[in-house]
Amino acid sequence: MRLARDGWTTVLPEVDAEVAELRERVVDEVLTTALVPAWDVTGGEVDIGAYLSGVPECMVDAVPQRISTRGRVVTFVVPAGYVDTTPHSAVHNRGVALAALCSSIIASGHSVEIWSSDCVYVSRDERYSAVARVVSAAEPLDMGRLMFVMAHPAMLRRLWFSVWDSSEEHIAERKYEANYGATPYTCYPEDLPAGVEEPYILPYLSPDEPQWETLDSALAWCREMFTDLGLLRD
Predict the structure, then answer these.
(1) Residue from 14, 25, 1, 12 nearest 141 by CA
(2) Number of domains in the chain
(3) Does the predicted TM-score (pTM) go above 0.90?
(4) Does some domain include residue 233?
C-alpha cells in the first residue's frame, strides 16, 4: 500500500534515461477533422450581415477540413492480469518501457490518461471485469505511482486481488474458487465508463512473448507500437 500511495521510485533512473531520446520522436502535431465556415454564392445558410452589406458570397456552409492540433488527451488501458508463470522481469521490462513512452508524450505537450484493468474469465462463459483510472489527464504526472501500476507485480497480486476479495460476497467467492480467473485477460472499450473515447487498449502480458525478455526488446516493441498508433515518428 505504501508503494501504491507514494510511488515506486527506485526504478525512475531507468525511465529518465529513455525519455530524452523518445521525446524527439513524439508527434507534436496531430491531424484532426473540424468543421470550418466557407462563404460562397451558394450554400446552406444565409450570412445576414454579408447579405445586408451587398457581398455576393453571402451563403455559408460548414466544410470539414483536416487541421493540426496539439495537446490532445491520449488514453491507455493497461491490463494488469497475467498467469503465475510470468517472470517478474517481464512485468518490470514492459512497465518501464510503457512508462518511458508515456512520459515522453507528456513532455511534448500532450496529456495522458491511464487505466488499469483486471478482466478475467472464471468459466468458459462467465467473465468479470473491473477498471480503475490511475492517472488522470487533469493532474500532474506522478512517475513513481505510474511505475508501480505498470511495472510492479504487487499491482495485481496485492491491489487487484484485494479489490476482488472486498467485493460482494458471491463475487469474491466465485473469484476465489476460480483462482482469481483465467486467460484471456483482454479488456474491451465497453469495460470502461461512458465518456472514455478512443482508448488504446494494450495487450495483456503473456509469458511466452519474447519482446519482454529484456528492457531493450520491450522498448523496441513499444516504440513500434506507438509509431503504428501515430504517436511517434519513424
Answers:
(1) 12
(2) 2
(3) no
(4) no
